[in-house]
């Protein structure tokens, strides 16, 4: 009989230990989850920058396109994921019919794109450069 009487007291003490363990581990768990989400977000931004530079360069090698068309195409893709503070440079600035290659350079500051990353990456940028060559009809 004394065995069953001691059991509720033991469970009560264990419940207190569970509360302390929970209080110690939950912040670590939340930090890991938020870190994983932030890493995924920055990876998505990196891949989107790559895609925007490529699609912008593709737009630039189409006969009759301009640097403004290239910039508009790259901006359209960057806006899908909400990239902020981007700078897009198209080389050459004037695309003529005899232009043989188009280079698109996109710079995105990390301190404007993210939640946790800006705390650690102040002043850092992601840069992607894509150069495409036009096919000649010789």
Q: What is the strand and helix layout of this fold?
A:
Blueprint: H1 2-60, H2 67-80, E1 87-91, E2 101-109, H3 117-120, E3 125-133
Antiparallel strand pairs: 1-2, 2-3
Helix pairs in contact: 1-2
Structural write-up:
56% of the residues lie in helices and 17% in strands. The chain is of the alpha+beta class and 138 residues long. The protein has one domain (2-133). Strands 1-2-3 form a three-stranded antiparallel beta sheet, with helices on one face. The radius of gyration is 27 Å and the shape is rod-shaped. The mean pLDDT is 87.
Question: Key features?
Answer:
single chain; about 140 residues; alpha+beta; three-stranded antiparallel β-sheet; 3 helices; 3 strands; about 15% strand
Outline:
The chain has 138 residues and is of the alpha+beta class. It contains three helices and three strands.
- The quaternary organization reads as single chain
| Main sheet attributes: strand count, strand direction, barrel closure | 3 strands, antiparallel
Number of strand elements: 3
How many structural domains in the coordinates?
Answer: 1
SSE-based structural type: alpha+beta
Helical content class: 55-70%
Order of helices and strands: HHEEHE
Q: What integer value in Å does the Rg equal? A: 27 Å
**Between the first and last Cα atoms, what is the distance in angstroms?**
100 Å
Strand content: 15-25%
| Strand order of the biggest β-sheet | 1-2-3
Figure out the total of helices: 3
Mean pLDDT: 87
Low-confidence stretches at least 5 residues in length (pLDDT < 50)?
none
Any idea what the shape is?
Answer: rod-shaped
